[in-house]
Write a structure and sequence with these properties.
Length: about 375
Amino acid sequence: MPKRKEPPDQGRPPYRPAALRAMGGKSVTRTLASVLIGLVLVYLLVFLPLPYFIYKPGTAEEIRPMVHVKSGAGDEAGTFMLTTVRVTDTNVVNYFYALLAHQQLVPKKAVFRNGESEDEYTRRQDYIMLDSQSNAMQAAYKKAGIPYHLQNEGVMVLQVLDNMPAAQALQPGDYLLQLDGKPMATKDDVLGELKGKKEGDTVRVTYKRGNRTATVPLTLALLPVQPGEAQKAQPGLGIVPADVHSVKADDPDKQVSIQAGEIGGPSAGLMFSLEIYNQLTPDDLTKGYRIAGTGTIDPDGNVGVIGGIQHKIVAADREKADIFFAPKDYYPAPGEGSPVLNTTDARAEARKIHSAMKIVSVGTMDDAIRYLRSLPPKSAGIK
């Protein structure tokens, strides 16, 4: 007689001993724990910011497309180039990579002013670039003998102090238009209007942000006293104001305008002044050379030192610059700071990367112009 077969189990799960069921639960727990630990590690390594910036070679950019003169000179046989430093935030990964690659790590506290946010720092760099462009125009106009005048464009808010009245309404980049209905043309106007006010007084502040204008009442509070200051706390809004002005040529056909995009800071001043001067005068100073450089400029044409010049040498060499203008080494008086060796560092970096660029040390705009005028056209070479 054939044996009876049991029908297959149609829905009941297979029997598993309790020990195996417990092991399955532990496996899921371990998996979830591993995933969580992995996410935490990724956050710590990649997304957790560190209090450092990494400075790297940036760009070397032709200035001619940025500078416009209504009735300027013709085309240039060569080109002037400004140079930049690339600044990036750090996480744990690129921090240790920067150490291994000998990249420059700069503490953020050495870059930011006391209490300054990153947005306020960016606004300050934008303002400094505008001021640098203004200085470059004045230096070029003076050298070219073109009369000009300054025109006030208002008062910009560079910084808003935390927990102060202005923080309720104002932002870096706003323009102050009026206080209690009185026009504010300069920061001295702002200080003068607030002088004599008391803590608790209310001031109606009219400001402009982009295309929007608004008026708000703000109650004055005592400003924080800076370390080392002897005077007592004064009432105020809690802002750092700055004058904004434009440079106007008396002859409208010689008016200069500059559109530098997202580039900030003061270090393109010298190169802007050379490009402006070249467009205002008939002779072409470039003579076919690719001319890079860096350095601040004042309205009288004096060149000042900058930071990160070694990175700018790399950027200029990548763009095949023939000449690089570097500010003269700066040696302060005893007790007034440390030397800034721009020319020395520039030449050392050029040797390190085996660059054929000619590093030319300059202390004034005139130094750079004299050097360029002494050169033969590039076809004859500068060897």
